[in-house]
Amino acid sequence: MPTGYFEAVAPRSDRGNAEAVWSYHATTSGSSVILPDGRCDVIVRYRNEESRSITPVVTGPATEPYEIEFDEGDSWVGVRLRPEQGANLWGRKIVDAREAVLMNDEALEMVPDLADILLAQPEETQLRTVLEAATAGFLERPVNQRVSAALQRVHETGGQVRVEALAREVGVSVRHLSRLFLGSVGLSAQTYVGVVRFHRALWLTMRGGLSLSAAAIDAGYADQAHLTRAVRRFAGKAPGTLPDDLILPDVSGVGFLGDSI
């Protein structure tokens, strides 16, 4: 993890809350690659003390990497939703929210309570509390229980499960399960499974100390070449060129719970 990044992950049984609250404080100027995790985030970006500007950001579920630039002193605080909570935030628009990044007025339209943060201009140390309060309302809304059950299975297996098996376990057809996923998560079931398996493999090789070939087999890929193709797809780079300080959130079911904020 890069210096300055922390996340607090809620227990998987605590369905009424977000999956995690995270923060990042830039100790230098530069840029960073953000890996896709298939989730939606509500974020507040706090620029350095000289400009003292606060920018609200809402993201859709990502399957592609993107790069952010920052100055020394910039900070972010984010609420990472559970994948099945995507529709709670986006409503019916979740089916078109893939790779979306909304800022300022567009973000405020999605989460009106973020306007209170802009008016109050809280100190950086208070952002986590006020952001959690701003997102509490829609996080408490009910989610699709079949999707939740299927997601639990995906996470338990680290993405090593076929969509056909998921559909059987929750009692629907493969086509219907994919529609349910798209309407709740914003991604097809197959795509989401691929994202989780990719994250598991990265954890095993970058944090678990396994070789690329061993991580590939452990994560359920056919071989190292298969994993390499997945890394190019989701990270946009070859495995050997990935930076050591990538932010790897706990989304894969490996069991890492990160550092507490």
UniProtKB/TrEMBL annotation:
Record organism: Shimia isoporae
Name assigned to this protein: AraC family transcriptional regulator
Keyword NAD found: no
Every HTH araC/xylS-type domain range: 145-245
GO MF annotation: an example: DNA-binding transcription factor activity
Keyword set includes Transcription regulation: yes
UniProt keyword terms in alphabetical order: DNA-binding, Transcription, Transcription regulation
A Pfam family hit: HTH_18
